[in-house]
Task: structure prediction
Amino acid sequence: MVNFEYIDAKSLGDVPDLLGKRWGESEILAGGTDLLDRLKERLDTPKRVINIKGLKELHGIQNGDGLKIGTLTTIAELAADERVHKSYPVLAEAAASIATPQLRNMGTVGGNLCQRPRCWYYRGLEYKCLKKGGAKCYAAEGLNKYNAILGGGPSFIVHPSDSAPALIALGAKIELLSADGKEEMPLDEFFELPIDNLRRENVMNPNEILTTITVPKQPNGTRSTYLKFREKQSLDFAISSVAAVLQLQGSTVKSARIVLGGVAPIPWRAEAAEAALTGKTLTAANIAAAAKASTDGADPMTQNAYKVMLTQNLVKRALEKLAG
Amino acid sequence: MAAWKPLDEMNILSSRYPRIDGPLKVSGKAKYTHDLKPEGLLYGLILHSPHPAAKIVGIDASKVEQHPGVKAVLTDLHPTGTCRYVGDTIAAVAVTSPEIAHDVLDLFKVDYEILPFSADLDAAMKEGAARVFADKDNISEPRIDGEGEIESAFGPDDIIVEATYRTQVQTHACLEVHGSLAMWKGDDLYLWDSTQAVHGVRESVARYLELPMDKVHVICHHMGGGFGSKLQAGNYSAIAARLAKLADAPVKLMLTREQDFIAAGNRPDSIQKIKAAVNREGKLSAFQVTTYATAGIASRAGVRIPIVYEDIPAWRHEHYDVYTNAGAARAFRAPGCPQGAFAMEQIMDELAEKVGMDPLEFRLKNDSNSTRQKEWRIGAERIGWQRRRKQPGSDAGQIKRGVGLAAGIWWPGGRGTQAQMTIYPDGAVEVRCGTQDIGTGSRTLVAAVAAEELGLQVKDITSLVGESDFPKSGSSGGSTTSPSVAPAIKNTAEKAKARLAELAAEQLGALAVDVQFADGKAMANGKSLNWKALCGLLGTDPITVHGEWVEGLSSAGVAGCQFAEVAVDTDTGRIQVEKLVAVADCGLVLNRLTAESQVNGAVIQGISYALLENRLMDPVTGSQINADFENYKILGALEVPEIEVIFFDEAERGVIGIGEPPKVPTAGAVANAVYNAIGVRIREIPMTPDRVLMALAKA
Result:
């Protein structure tokens, strides 16, 4: 770990100025479950670390017409929240699937959305990869069984968040705070592909902070679930995951949101699958067609073709579960 | 010849009793090398080669020496000047705090001339591959073993199966990394070493540093996992000693987790190409196998095959060691055997299927071991072998279940241990033995054997192990510890008892040979004397006796077998082992609790080998891409099945080791169960979801 200045943020309004205008100069410390690793591995060597844990306004879940989730809400709090369980099962299931009890107790929702990729080349200091300003994506010619099958290039990372696919499937919005004020946007528009933004995974500027997540009230007839596949059940990131939110009218799908995790550099909207379901009933044939459509455009690398089958099967299972 | 008393007369041995250091471990009071922090401690660091192949042109440590936190530097550590793997030792320093480690290591300026490399088995075997050693081919001369005339052994009426199997490199992944704390007191060197061999480390370090052996004191009171990788002195022990001398302060040098993965040993991988034949009687008649395996820059990557079913009239094994630019292999729990058994047990299943025999029936027909003949039947009954799918892959639905089996085996016994016992006038009993407790429970075993012999309880004995200043015992490897140590402790206790019997005889009006020791008393002639009173007769002089390993109390060679039941999710390719029945034998079971613990550990490590663990070498840079616990995946609590351990008692054979044999069959049993579940044979481990899905897609 390289020495840095440590600051306890006293008020939310101070944070944008403390962050400064250049990437790499400052880092926000919330739960620290990702940041501390990156500092110890010297992937990040900020001059300043800003602890925001004392900012009370960022804690907790408010229930109004929908949910308002402060970004310092821990994953454990989210997973245990009865309102979330009852009305947003996809989010409760996604939260419960994250890491381990210890990490869920420390890790925050904001951190889960802003965490950096797990690609082993990105995480290894010795690999000067594209994400770190180097000349090549090592995964392209190297070991890529966990890398992207969708949306890859020139970097082939996958986005590791479990909460993001669930929140996007629920149509969540986020609020960012910068020195210029607040900005609200759909979470769906927050993440960016490497082709648009190679070094970061989202639209945030260096002096911005993610403050709240708003989840709209879901219409009657909404069913949702999150299925996550990992090699190791005890503690593992998703190899592939699916967040499915269906609004049913009788037995007909009025609208569908299917978002994939672990397969693309951003949480991946499976729009072809959504279209394949809309206006249809959840018959075996329609489910199979949607599952197949979920990986439309997939371009597997040398060692990850299995993720196409796996993802289709997960989508099928999720839809079967919601149909049942 | 010495003999154990009959099982029904034993009070402690062969029952279940907890280890005496359990409370210390769960409360954190047990101090491992990693935990020690004496006054003035410095931290040793190794700078390792970032290149898989490179000549060291020069090492400039001048900036390092100027750093205020640096107290000693060594740059003369590389023996040849040519690095052959990422992780090769270049230089070492002692610093005042671990937090400045990276800063200090960055100050080394090493000039390398980078050379081409071959990072793994496939790369090293390719035509025109970069040579690991300039003066020899990567593929070594073959080692050929066999019996009979293989060329003419495959008959026209035989059923023949040909198949190729592959196993991966598995690393030991010890919870406590390799390391040593060195402290000089005058001319005496004290080393707290995380080791499986306190005496072995003393000998090696004394030779390397040219010190008299009595000046080197190696201590290992508690150890966080070795599995064979800590059988030898590491260079870190000698480096810590040299740094401590230079700095005139204690130095603790623990490898980093990454260094532990890349430079502290592994189990070689294997490619095994087999052609095997069964005759009309259903007996193996011919077996031809060619194996390739890499021990990195080391040799001896041997695979034991054929294994278990070795009464084959004609067989031939041609083995090639292959050099790669990777860290040297080290002994790993049953070296060579889990690899061989994985291939052997699968081809046995493939042959059985082709001749139309039940796999169990086929084993019984070809297994000449009389113990295992009984164990097969016990295990089959416990797993419910009759439930096995007659038609592999015939379960309806996405989750398919199957059952498979495989055999265990191991050879060595053990000998060569000395011990010392002191009995004090107040009744205290202290045993010293220079073995070490690497987590198997040998400290408890020492106390239990002594207590059994003296008619006392385990808690009445102070058991001191893990110091090279104690009487000599060998390394804890090859499953030799119990058969080496238990006889020596019994022999020592018998000598002490004989001395006490003379004292007691006088008091009890009996002959010394008639005095019996039980329930904390000496008894004879219808009278008794309690232990304290008896020891009080010593006055002021304790009894100290020495004993040693004697013949008759231990033997060698075990069998064993395992049955696995798995559930395979054909949507995801995930294999869950749901139940594993392990039938094991180790002669006289000294402590059922710790013996079961050994079998549990071996089974868990075996399933982990079958399903997850895999050292992955990056083809671009030649470094291990997954040298961490996130990406080097080890079986976790949720993947561990119900494990049923059944001991087949053969007390009359005396003590035999149990650490290694249950590791041998597990991967083969799981693989056979997977085939029974899905009807597709996966001939390569680890059987990760990607491989299962791709195999299902191809089928």
